[in-house]
Write a structure and sequence with these properties.
Blueprint lengths: L2 E7 L5 E7 L4 H7 L17 E6 L2 E3 L9 H5 L2 E3 L3 E3 L3 E4 L14 E11 L4 E8 L13 E6 L4 E6 L10 E6 L5 H9 L5 E8 L11 E6 L3 H14 L6 E7 L8 H6 L7 E7 L9 E2 L8 H4 L4 E6 L1 H13 L7 E5 L4
Parallel strand pairs: 1-7, 14-15, 14-18, 15-16, 16-17, 18-19
Antiparallel strand pairs: 1-2, 3-5, 3-7, 4-6, 8-9, 8-13, 9-12, 10-11, 10-13
Length: 339
């Protein structure tokens, strides 16, 4: 009997990946991995185990209509006590992980492989997992918590590398005048340093592209978009057009332009646009906040939309999209703070 990977995502953003045989229900596969999904009847009658299958193919055993209506089933709501995965699946549960999982999130010991400034204010930190470490099993767009060496503190950063690359993890860090991680990467970081990575977390992740894609990134909000774009190339999901809008405060803060430009050669139908708040001499691109690049033509094809950046950017983009009639179901966002 075939086995498939299930990525279980809880309301608080914690996620975990388990393997499931097609003969096992999702509930039972989770139970085998010490994840106690909330349930009551185990017969498809009570709806306690209801969840949303965001990605993947599945079948359901018999259940009563009162537990799962035809409308809910059409929207890919599932009863996990009756669900059998027929492919890899991503399943979201509407409650916090502490109700189903008693242990702490997994941690992975890593070492710094490289650290370098890639713009006037952005550092690229590459970590290598220690030999023998298990696959972290993240979805492009998710983040982990990185321990800051020598400080006792930790900070959250999105993966900029795709899940297919398992021997190196890339992160982009906004370097501030002061801050636990900023001070570390600017002043002390060296290859070979030990860093503990915990996670993965996040409900902000790439859905299989079945319609055009719009990405809006502010500053290091570009990082998860790079993970998504790399994943699309790795999996051959290149049929849908992608528009990437990137914003920064100044031109010298923009990074990874060569990588973005290279996606076209790799088969992506990608259009990238940049805007800066303080243009300075020699800048011939758009001036202003990245949300100023939003206009009717970028949403007329009803794309799936991904927003990542500081809270004011996310809120401004959401307000614009709402005012232009965008279905909020198609909008996925991640706010972040630097440090």
């Amino acid at each position: 009997m075939s086995k498939h990977d299930l990525t279980i995502v809880f309301e608080d953003g914690r996620s975990v990946r388990v393997s499931a045989s097609e003969e096992d229900t999702v509930y039972f596969a989770c139970l085998k991995n010490r994840i106690r999904i909330l349930t009551d009847c185990l017969e498809g009658a009570c709806a306690t185990c209801k969840a949303h299958c965001v990605e993947g193919e599945y079948r359901l055993d018999d259940y009563v209509d009162e537990a799962l209506t035809a409308e809910e089933a059409a929207a890919r709501q599932v009863l996990t006590c009756q669900m059998h995965a027929l492919s890899d699946c991503v399943i979201e549960f509407p409650y916090e992980s502490r109700l189903a999982m008693k242990g702490e999130p997994k941690s992975w010991p890593c070492t710094v492989a490289s650290v370098e400034m890639v713009s006037s204010s952005v550092c690229r930190l590459v970590l290598a997992p220690d030999r023998g470490a298990q696959d972290i099993g993240f979805i492009p767009g998710q983040y982990v918590r990185l321990g800051v060496p020598g400080s006792g503190e930790s900070r959250d950063y999105s993966f900029a590398s795709p899940p297919q690359v398992t021997d190196r993890f890339t992160f982009y860090i906004k370097v501030l005048a002061s801050g636990a991680m900023s001070d570390y990467v600017r002043d002390r970081a060296r290859p070979g340093d030990a860093v503990v990575m915990t996670g993965p977390f996040g409900r902000f992740y790439l859905r299989t592209p079945v319609r055009p894609v719009l990405m809006v990134a502010g500053g290091t909000g570009l990082a998860p978009m790079l993970s998504m774009l790399d994943h699309m190339v790795h999996t051959g999901a290149t049929a849908q057009p992608v528009r990437l809008l990137v914003g920064a405060n100044r031109p010298d803060e923009i990074f990874c332009t060569d990588q973005v430009a290279g996606y076209v050669e790799k088969g992506l139908k990608l259009d990238a646009e940049y805007a800066v708040v303080e243009p300075g001499p020699g800048w011939d691109g758009e001036t202003g906040h990245v949300t100023g690049l939003l206009r009717d033509e970028v949403v007329e094809a009803e794309p799936d939309i991904y927003l990542c950046g500081p809270p004011p950017m996310i809120e401004a983009a959401q307000d614009w999209l709402s005012a232009h009639g965008t279905d909020p179901v198609r909008v996925h966002s991640e706010k972040f703070l630097s440090g």
